[in-house]
Design goal:
By secondary structure, the chain is of the alpha/beta class. Helices cover 32% and strands 18% of the residues. The chain contains 5 helices and 7 strands; from the N terminus they run H-H-E-H-E-E-E-H-E-H-E-E. Strands 3-2-1-4-5-7-6 form a 7-stranded mixed β-sheet, with helices on both faces. It is globular and about 65 Å long. One of its GO terms (molecular function) is protein-lysine N-methyltransferase activity. It catalyses: L-lysyl-[protein] + 3 S-adenosyl-L-methionine = N(6),N(6),N(6)-trimethyl-L-lysyl-[protein] + 3 S-adenosyl-L-homocysteine + 3 H(+).
């Protein structure tokens, strides 16, 4: 019988596979059910190919709260390559501010009109309705620890902000951050949901609550 040559899965392996697929379906089912919060950190998983590392819940909350205070009543907040902060800000539903997310990863387009596709290689390639100096604060986390990436992201930040900047990047970028954005390091140390090899820090150009 020719079928004898076809490798067969053991009943144990089959059962394990079925269990895996069932768990996967349940996870997807949970995501699409009404109880799922599409703005919770981790609802869109990290893609390390895009140098994505989400903040811890505590860090995202701290940065979001700082942005709300800095923006003021009716303020506008832009999150540049900082989706964890955007997601945390959206949990402040009904509060008196508006927010948008500038991101290269098109998975974040699920957030509708607040999503703006952004490629730091083309820092000023932005929609016409994104007027210059129209945000009370810009929070940015450039995806790569290189001066080129920081310099190009800085162009975007300076175009968008009325003045206030909150930058999150590696401690090794302190000199370049001061050079390109005039920001100084804060006492607050941001943490990520997964530990990173590089020490991360926050930088601001105004009197913040992060010291």
């Amino acid at each position: 019988d020719d079928d004898d040559d076809i490798p067969q899965l053991s009943s144990h392996t089959l059962a394990a596979l079925q269990e895996f697929y069932l768990e996967q379906q349940q996870r997807e089912g949970t995501k699409t059910s009404q109880g799922f919060n599409q703005y919770s950190i981790g609802s869109i998983e990290e893609d390390w190919q895009l140098s994505q590392f989400w903040y811890s819940d505590e860090t995202a909350s701290c940065l979001a709260n700082e942005a709300v205070v800095a923006a003021g009543k009716g303020g506008r907040i832009a999150c540049v390559s900082a989706p964890s902060v955007y997601q945390k800000l959206k949990e402040h539903d009904g509060k008196d501010f508006s927010v948008c997310i500038l991101e290269y990863d098109r998975r974040f387009s699920v957030y509708g009109e607040e999503f703006i596709f952004y490629d730091y290689n083309h820092p000023l390639n932005l929609p016409e309705n994104l007027l210059p100096h129209s945000f009370d604060i810009v929070i940015a986390d450039p995806p790569y620890l290189s001066e080129e990436c920081l310099q190009k992201t800085a162009e975007t930040i300076k175009y968008l902000t009325k003045g206030k900047i909150l930058l999150c990047t590696g401690a090794i970028m302190e000199e370049q951050a001061a050079k390109h954005l005039g920001v100084k390091i804060c006492k607050f140390i941001p943490k990520h949901s997964r530990n990173l090899a590089n020490e991360f820090r926050c930088y601001v150009n105004y009197a913040s609550g992060l010291d």
